[in-house]
Specification:
With about 80 residues, the protein is of the alpha+beta class. The protein contains two helices and five strands, in the order βααββββ.
């Protein structure tokens, strides 16, 4: 099982997600502790990390297999996340 680390800026980004979508995004983040490479994950080009989709929201994260850690780098709406 991997340890989840969430950047402070991500906590602020999560607060902006509407309540109707928040629980699904939160559950997707928590599931990364069990499987950091779920079906549909994708390695990002032009920047470090991976991303998963949850509806219109994206979760960007980095995997550190040596220390069994998943670092959540960003979470937000797909139109805003890659800026």
């Amino acid at each position: 099982m991997y340890q989840l680390l969430i950047e402070k800026q991500v906590e602020k980004q999560l607060e902006k997600i509407p309540a109707s979508d928040y629980m699904r995004v939160k559950n997707s983040i928590l599931s990364l502790a069990q499987n950091p490479r779920p079906a549909g994950y994708k390695k990002l080009k032009g920047r470090n990390g991976y991303r998963i989709r949850q509806g219109d929201y994206r979760i960007v994260y980095d995997i550190h297999d040596q220390i069994l850690t998943v670092l959540i780098l960003a979470a937000g709406h797909r139109k805003d996340i890659y800026e």
